[in-house]
Design brief:
The protein is mostly beta strands. Helices cover 0% and strands 57% of the residues. Strands 1, 2, 3, 4, 6, 11, 12, 13 and 15 form a nine-stranded antiparallel beta sheet that branches. A six-stranded antiparallel beta sheet has the order 5-14-7-8-9-10, with no helix packed on it. The N and C termini lie far apart (38 Å).
């Protein structure tokens, strides 16, 4: 017997902001040792050309506490354990949560806090995440108080209770797990207020 996947749509408030990735002032761009971060037509592209490379970009001026955010991630070059996704509550001290989808169809949440890395949600296979590339996924996170709930393609994935980082910036990332190049495009970011 197959158990249906639970679909949960949070109650939302007004749109705080949306981003169609047309303004270069909104994101950290440029060439890095691992590759390049650039704006294209309505999308932000993270292109890694270094084995084991990692790239990220933060949206400027978007320090958020409670919020609901959705973004479309479209890996075009991506294999196996390569991963990509969202950075949440990124602090000036480079402490943050990292919501990851892997290119073999798994999800996880990592946390970097006080110089230590942990995984509040370990790597878990999930049928809501399309494996391989090219593919398209709509990622979402609901952050309210000490709880963060995560979604992919309209399906609820998991919730983590953690009071460590209540506010911070929003960003995106991509990482190569091996010797191959990785390219991921991000588009159509919408951030909402949470319902009162």
């Amino acid at each position: 017997m197959v158990t249906p996947t639970v679909s949960i749509k949070p109650a939302l408030g007004a749109i705080t902001f949306s981003d169609n990735f047309s303004n270069p002032a909104n994101w950290i761009l440029g060439k890095r040792p691992a590759g390049r971060i650039s704006l294209g037509k309505g999308e932000l592209t993270l292109a890694i050309n270094q084995p084991g490379g990692y790239l990220f970009s933060l949206r400027q001026g978007s320090v958020l506490g409670d919020f609901y955010a959705e973004i479309t991630a479209s890996p075009s070059i991506c294999l196996g354990g390569d991963d990509y996704g969202m950075l949440i509550h990124f602090s000036p001290n480079q402490e943050f949560y990292r919501f990851s989808l892997t290119c073999d169809g798994q999800v996880r949440l990592d946390k970097y806090f006080n110089g230590k890395a942990s995984s509040p949600q370990p790597l878990t296979p999930n049928g809501s995440v399309p494996p391989g590339a090219p593919s398209i996924s709509r990622l979402a996170v609901l952050a309210v108080g000490n709880d963060m709930s995560f979604f992919a393609n309209g399906e609820y994935l998991f919730t983590v209770h953690d009071p460590s980082l209540p506010v911070g910036s929003l960003g995106v990332f991509a990482r190569s797990a091996g010797d191959n190049a990785v390219t991921v495009n991000f588009s159509d970011l919408v951030v909402y207020q949470t319902a009162k």
